[in-house]
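Q: Joint fold for the lines below.
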Amino acid sequence: MKNHIVLGVDIGGSGIKGGLIDIKKGEMITERYRLETPQPATPAAVAATFKELIDHFDWKGPVGVGFPAIVRHGKALSASNIDASWIGVDITKLLSKAAGCPVYVLNDADAAGIAAMHYGVGKGEQGVVFMITIGSGIGSALFMDGKLVPNTELGHIYLKNNKEVAEKYISGNARKARGLGWSAWGKQFNKYLLHLERLFSPDLIILGGGGSKQFANFQDKIQLNCRVIPAGLLNQAGAIGAAYYAWEMETTKPKH
Ligand code: BGC
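A: Joint structure:
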């Protein structure tokens, strides 16, 4: 693959963002390009916007895509923060056809976690590590000795006294909708993390997504036995991790 360059894309509820990623450095080497996610975000509409992004970069090589749902063997198996018509759709097939280049798709939080583990604060971390992303939803990625266990969906656990899944109370969107400041939200988020700690005894929890940029505003509310640190890498983690995943898939693919 030419110069270890892959196009990394992050499909989210409000924006579809991407840029060319240097896999050796784990850096975006172009300006990040962002398009509004079409509403409703149906498969056909998202595929058309995705093609626009490919055309913007005039890209012909491999593309890695982080997608906000369970992604099993390229297919969407859930749709909490995207249009329900995605369920059952072969995302890989749809986007490869739209782009005219090889596309590899994985869950968006798994992508952000991969970026943190390979290039960021998780580099070299052994044992049980979680990435929890705070955005429109709550995403999770689980790593054991650096190896990803995909599609953990820990934003969908139920907490005591809550009628709906955890992300309905503690995602970035839920915080805004409930009118909570970072401190009040931080207290509730700590309860959520404590529950995860009880269930999985992680060695480290890395916080990602837009909400993690506010870490300084709720850090004092986080009281766990394990280390909890923000990811850094800001908005580009999803695209960088997706690009790494695509590169890995391309380079390990059996040659005919
Ligand atoms: C979805 C996850 C996704 C997370 C962050 C959740 O609602 O179920 O698959 O990783 O949002 O986008």
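Q: Anything notable?
A: The mean pLDDT is 95. Residues 182-200 form the longest helix (19 residues).
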